[in-house]
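DM from R.C. (forwarded with permission)

"hey, sorry to bug you on a friday — could you get me a structure for this? deadline for the figure draft is monday and I only need the backbone to look sensible"
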Amino acid sequence: MADIGATQNDKDVSVPFRFLRTYAARTTRSPRRLVLVTTVRPALDPALRHTIALRTEALFRSSGAFREGHFLLKSGRHGDAYVEKFQVLQDPAATSELCGFFAEHGRAADRELLVDLVAGPTTGGIILAFETARQLGVRSIFAEEVRADDGTTHREFRRGFRIVPGERVLLVDDILTTGGSLLAMIPAVEAMGGEIVECVVLVDRGGGRTTLTSPSTGRVYAVRSLWELDLPTYEPGPATCPRCADGTPLYAPGSTGTGSIAAGAAAS
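My reply, with the result:
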C-alpha cells in the first residue's frame, strides 16, 4: 500500500504547489461509508504525494523543527536526529497549511465529506485535530492518556466527548515512531462504535509504515504520512549507539526541555 508521504529519494516529478488543492480535487477517490471490516482507502497520486512531502519538509526545516545531534527518545532508545513538531505547530499559518493536507483525506473527489469527526491524542494531536476539523466543518475531540490502578496506561475520551455509533472518524497525529499513540487511540474509538476511515500523521520517522492493527479487535487500518523519513534508533551504549561511542552529549528534547542534558528522562 502506498504511503501519502514520499521519501527523500523519491524520484516522482512534482506538480507546482499552487495547483495542489485543485489537483487534489481531481484525484480519484470514491465516497463511501465504511462497514465494520478492515479499512483500506486508496493513496493519493504519487506526484501529489511528492509535492506534499516536499512542502512538509520545507515547513519543518524552515522552522528549525528538524534537528541533528544525540537524543534520548520516548522509547528509551537513542537517535541522531529529532523532529520537534511544536516548532512548526507554534506557527498558525504553517499548522493550517499542514492540516489542509490532512483535510484532503476527509473529502471525496466531489468534495463530499467522508468523515463526521476528527480525533487526535494529546498533546500535538489536539491542535491538529481541531484545525483539520475546522477546515472540514466537523467536530474535533481528543483522547488523553490515563493510568490504571495496576500502573498500565490507555487512552480515553473524557470531558464529555462521545462518538455516536457509526460515526466516521479521521485519526490524526504528529510524529509516527512506533505508532504507540495511535494504537492506544484505536480501541477507544472502536469501543464507542466509531468507524475509523484512516490514520494520518505529519511525519513517519520510521520509514514506510502503512498499516496499524487494532490491539483490541485485530482490524487493520491504513496509516499515511505527509513526510516519510528513515531515521535509525539505537540501544543506549557505546557498543550500539554511534553518538554514545563518539562522546556526543545526550539531550532529552520535548517536554523535558529542549537543549537540557538528559538525565534518564525521555522525550515526548
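R.C.: lifesaver. The beta strands are 66-72, 78-83, 117-121, 139-147, 153-156, 168-176, 195-204, 211-213, 220-228, 233-234.
me: no worries. Residues 41-67+79-237 form a domain with the Rossmann fold fold (CATH 3.40.50.2020).
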